[in-house]
Amino acid sequence: MNKINFPRVTRQICLQLSTMALLLILITNLAAWTQAAVLTDGHRIDCEHFDEKNCTIEGDCAIKTEHCKAESDKTSSCYVLWTMDNATGETKIKMKGCFTDMHECNQTECVTSVEPRSNKLYFCCCKGSMCNSAHKWIPTTTEATTQVPKEKTTDNTNMIYVVVCAVVFVFLALLLTPFAFCYYRKRKPTNFNEIPTNETEATNATPLLNNRPIHLLELKASGRFGDVWQGKLHSQDVAVKIFRMQEKESWNTEVEIYKLPRMRHPNILEFLGCEKHTEKIQLEYWLISVYHPNGSLCNYLKSHTLSWLELCKIAESMSQGLMHLHEEIPASKTDGLKPSIAHRDFKSTNVLLKGDLTACIADFGLAMVFQPGKSCGETHGQVGTRRYMAPEVLEGAINFNRDAFLRIDVYACGLVLWEMVSRCTAVGPVGDYMLPFEAELGLRPTVDEIQDTVVAKKLRPRILNTWRTHAGLSVFCDTMEECWDHDAEARLSSSCVMERFAQLCKYTATPLLIENNTNCEEERLTSNCL
């Protein structure tokens, strides 16, 4: 009688399993490809598009048509985000457009019965071209509910589903026994200790915060990327930046910036964690940081003036934060390399003030990381806030290297310094707070107006003659002018700006005129971007 060679039998079973599994994968991929083709051809839709931020900031209030991108693994839908006055029933649209993140939008009308949260925002989504031209909220207590018809699938799609299900069922039946045999012989315990680092791996409660509850208390600000709330994490006050679902890339960029080696710094906003929240069909991305009651430098200057000592403290700490951001720090035995980072949206609203009036830099949604030996690429258009854009950005004449992007930050830093000096009482009473170029162009200048002022006329915010009579403020004026120089290569580096203010702040009681550092005058940034 022949003996059975069990290891050989095992290998044969596993070989057969591998062959059948390969066939299953090929058939499944073919079916998925066919389904994707049907979706691409038959489910491409248009949606009404509107963003309140474009209306209030840029004056673009028109409702436009958005062509939704077809994706093989997602269904294109339309959505509307609005608020409603419960007393009058009046609604106000916040945003509308294409929506591809969820699969629950199986209705042809934009209707919701979900109660809004503390932010009072209503959300609905629907399938079908321009189906978000109308929207409504139907409370769950309403007796007469509206039956929303579901979109009918095509015969081709139904046939695909039938074929795929039949094929999968047959192969699963054939593979079940040998697969289980091989799997349990070879399986290893799964490591669940890894912390997700990118958005696609994040869960509804990211382990970074260990599922600790955060309570939103008060809306503090609204911006391009979302809203900023004061919140409570146990007994600690925190700031919660909530990104809209369309801005998940900015959320992911900020998280990755904060996780870089040696990013912790007294003058960089302290990052606590991030979460991806899904409530019903509303998807939000949260970034949690330390809360600073003084808020942004911009808001602080609107209601406060600065003494000479306060001006020095804010300027020195802000320049220290910008220098740390720009600086490349080599790797050590305990820490990895900290790459050079360009902020690309530096302005007074992105500088926060701590309780002691030292500054910290925040908002890295547009930041760019320069890894040594890697190309910067050539796909970087006009980003940032137009009022703070450097001449080369407005002209579209950026050199795509690290130096160029760092000098753009320095230009904006010069404008922020002007905002601070304009509210300093060292030489007497001051006027109301104004943004850079507000006196010349008003609150909502167009790109063309900014280009004409900054590029064609080469104008900068006005430096008062009285500022030059104060020895310390005169140093500020010189530094401003060297930061916003029209020639990008003639601008100071952030490290030189920091050195000047560090030296100046030694003379806080009786400010003296500080001679310009020769090294700073001759300094030129060294590029590590190949």
TrEMBL record:
EC number(s) from the headed UniProt entry: 2.7.11.30
The record's GO CC annotations read:
activin receptor complex
Q: Which residues cross the membrane?
A: 159-184
Name the Gene Ontology biological process terms: cellular response to growth factor stimulus
Question: What's its membrane topology?
Answer: Single-pass type I membrane protein
Protein name (Swiss-Prot/TrEMBL): Serine/threonine-protein kinase receptor
Q: Which reaction does it catalyse?
A: L-threonyl-[receptor-protein] + ATP = O-phospho-L-threonyl-[receptor-protein] + ADP + H(+)
Biological classification of the source:
Eukaryota, Metazoa, Ecdysozoa, Arthropoda, Hexapoda
Q: Per its UniProt entry, what is the enzyme's top EC class, as one word?
A: transferase
